[in-house]
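We modelled the chain as a single entity of 484 amino acids. Its sequence is:
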Amino acid sequence: MPVLNQLMPENVFHFFEEICQIPHGSGNLDAICRYCVRFAEERGLKVLRDEGDNILIWKEASPGYEDREPVVLQGHLDMVCEKTADSGHDFAKDPLELYVEDGFVKARNTTLGGDDGIAVAMILALLDEKDAVHPPIEAVFTADEETGMGGAKALDLQLLKGRKLINIDSEEEGILTVGCAGGISCHTSFPLDFSSREGEVVKIIISGLTGGHSGSEINRQRANALKLSGRLLYEASRSTQLFLMDAGGGGKENVIASQAEILLMAEHPSALMEAAVKMEALWKEEFMDEEPNLSVQTEKRGMQTANVVSAETTKKIVAYLMAAPDGPVGYNRTLPGLVETSLNHGIMAVREGYLTIDTLVRSSLGSKKAELAERLKILAGLCGASFRADNEYPGWAYKKESSLRELMTRTYREMFGRDPEVLTIHAGLECGLFLDKKKDLDCVSFGPDIWDVHSVKERLSIESTERSYEYLKAVLAGCCREDI
């Protein structure tokens, strides 16, 4: 039964709810692609699904504005799939369970996918509207943005005539984003030398962390469960010898890891238990009220004979987790308070005889991005691990001249009586890849208020969505009035 049909703008939330009924996590986009193609065909709009699972839809201009230059409207199809530990939700087949609370749309026990489902919904609503005033529209829905921007990398921009691109993938109303960081994925792999050993087994569970987006929220210095696990094990190793058995944590490179589980054999399990109690108390003091649900649990599994990693390899893994930098490592020298360079250890897992740590490095400067990746490579080598980097994507440099930015600033001022904030962000946006392919593009990103994206606390402001949609329509009308 529809939950959002009473909300305004009705057509936007109608399409958003339909999108939320279709599984569309990264790598699972066939159903949402078919939905978008069917939407276009039912309305007689030209549509293309390319080999990268990007969807392109063309709509002619409003009568009288056929001679205006097309405007590209762009968002991405995929969402980050995170859920609470006790949730039975299956992102591969289950619809999201939406509800409205305190002026926000939320999903029960899962991420909402407002990033970037609301962009798709807003663009579909515009394509569906009969009375909106607009130039020719080239709608672009990209695939797998959240896992390396694969769709944007594969997109053939020669298919598009427009040189003005409005990206709807920002999460704070009143902000026009005009630049972003580039990124590179780094993978550190430790070979695991298992052998049989008898001893006391203990499981360490770090959970309840706030998590969040590793770009837009990295400045908040939230706790990363993978880093905490390294610190706890280092503290314990000062009093007892440890033998790793299994380890896992996090779920996405671009999400601050909110949980981790470590299975160990310890010569003196009491020392490990004491370290867990000590570190939990210390972290609650260090993070104050910013990690209210932080929890460190220990489970004694008793004496066992099991395959364990050698003490020497365990020490190297712990050393890497302890010594590797995490979070912000450099700030912008011209825009005070803006993170310039950072990294996030997003996933730790045992895979085919290796313990692998997947890390996303970001920077608005290509040289700093490369330097930080090299630092990780050197540290990995010193700790006996192999290192690989891939999925690199460029940043988006601020342009001094932008007619689209000027129009969107002026329109915002006229509608709301104040200037928007114009800034660059530390998170990655697909505009960098588009500009790398088409140098004369003029890009601006905006969006409604979406809080705690990439986490189970994600929520979308209803009133902000209404204002943002009206603002988008006003900008498009402005593109008709002015030759920008």
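As a brief sanity check on the tokenised model: The radius of gyration is 24 Å. Residues 462-481 form the longest helix (20 residues).
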